[in-house]
Amino acid sequence: MNYFFHLFKSNTDLVVSFFLALTSCFIPKTDPVNTVISINYEILFLLMCLMIVVAGFRKIGVLDGIYKGCFKFVDNTRSLSRIFIFINFFISMLITNDVSLIVFVPVAIRAFTCINRNDLIIPVVSMQTVAANMGSMLTPIGNPQNLYIYSYFNYQFTDFIFVTFPVFSVCFVLLYIATHFIDKSSLIIDTDNKIVIPKKKAVLFCVLFIFCLLCVLRVIDIYILCLILFPVCFISDRKLFLKVDYKLLLLFVFLFILVGNLSKYDLVSSLAFEFVSEYEYFVSLCLSQIVSNVPATVMLSSFTSDPDPLLVGVNVGGLGTIIASMASLISFKYYVKIDGAKPLYYLKKFTKYNLRFLLVLVTLHFIFPDYF
Q1: Under a CB-based contact definition with an 8 Å cutoff, are residues 155 and 360 in contact?
Q2: Do residues 135 and 171 lie in contact, with contact meaning Cβ atoms separated by under 8 Å?
Q3: What CA–CA distance (Å, rounded) separates 199 from 203?
Q4: DSSP result, 324-338
């Protein structure tokens, strides 16, 4: 009994998601075949490949080199925070919100731990997540829902940017204002210890990372990436496979099953058909809070006649709950690994930051519905 209690306490999100996924399997019109199909194996394999590459970078000292390099350009904690937050904001539009968080959240945690400012980890990681989710909305390749909408509705690139740019711009301003409340304590850190990075392995992992980006951009297939990356990493350092966060991947599996089964529920479909055609923005925003924005996009796309409010709604809908955007779970899982982590406090602060951004954007939608 004590073992199961400890298991639940240390993996609450995993256990809860398992029981929710299991319960959803008893919804009418669900069957084992559809349940298996609902799992997005491409995303799971891509996340696994990225985790392996990032683990390789971390092992050879690249991530330590990056975070120490950041100290050369800043002299206080506010500036350092802004570097990590806005790196996620701008780079996510090119490498997706998932990838940017996988790469830069661990670096930020390492940096603030190094300067003994663990109190800044929660606000910075929370805003990194907001930045990645909102920055990625600008381009079609920034996140999965954008790519789906861009292809499904045959958007022109310029038309797509015209729709997403206003919200993107406002989020930049909001993030800058939010970071203004972070204190400007002077940085005290010993950077004299030089990090020696093995060049051959650094080049190897850089090449593998480029392959991962090409997969994100749909230039190469995910299974080709796996055929390249898995054997190379197994030969170069097979211990990297032990660094993969398999619990996070399993969490995604349970969520995919839950969302896939819910989408077959007649009540969900009928409500979507009745309300989406007139209230695309609010329906997509609200539904994203429950099933996350990517499944909400797929579920609602066939019911809308105007894709613009759907595009804005599912992206703004990435704010709010921890599952509104599955990328948010990546940051959360990295945070809970640190010593002295407070998961419930993190969720409280994370939700608080998200709701503030969400409130501003929804208010702007009421005032300027044609732009926001």
Answers
A1: no
A2: yes
A3: 6
A4: SSTHHHHHHHHHTTS
256 neighbors 326 (Cβ within 8 angstroms): no
Question: What element of type H or E holds 250?
Answer: helix 246-262
CA–CA dist 47, 3 (Å, integer): 30
What is the overall mean pLDDT for the chain? Answer: 82
Per-residue pLDDT averaged across 246-271, rounded?
73
- Residue appearing with tokens 């170069």: 236
DSSP for 21-47, written as a single string: HHHHTTSTT--HHHHHHTS-HHHHHHH
Question: Kindly report the CA angle at 170 between 120 and 303, in degrees rounded to 5?
Answer: 110
Give the largest CA-CA distance in the chain: 64
Identify the burial level of 232 via C-beta atoms within 10 angstroms of its C-beta, where 0-12 means exposed, 13-18 middle and 19 or more buried: middle
Residues in the chain: 372
CA distance 208 to 228: 8
Question: How many distinct helices (H) and strands (E) make up the chain?
Answer: 19, 0
Torsion angle, CA of 38/43/47/49, rounded to 10 degrees? 120
DSSP letter (8 states) at residue 30: -
Contacts of 368 (CB under 8 A, 6+ apart): 166
What are the residues facing 76 on neighbouring strands? 186
Q: Which of 137, 193, 67 is nearest to 315 (CA)?
A: 137
Q: Which pair of structure tokens corresponds to residue 157? A: 């690139």
Residue 7 has pLDDT above 60, yes or no: no
Whether residue 231 is predicted with pLDDT greater than 60 in this model: the reply is yes
Q: What is the pLDDT of residue 268?
A: 62
Over residues 169-187, the pLDDT tens digits come to 999 999 999 999 888 888 7
Contact of 87 with 79, CB cutoff 8 Å: no
pLDDT of residue 356: 92
Q: How confident is the model at residue 277 (pLDDT cuts 50, 70, 90)?
A: low
* 303-349 tens-digit pLDDT: 777 888 889 999 999 898 888 887 888 898 889 888 888 888 999 99
Tokens at residue 43, please?
């995303």
pLDDT tier at 271 (50, 70, 90 boundaries)?
Answer: low
Q: Count CA atoms closer than 13 A to 109's CA, side-chain side.
A: 22
What is the distance between the alpha carbons of residues 65 and 58, in angstroms, rounded to a whole number?
9
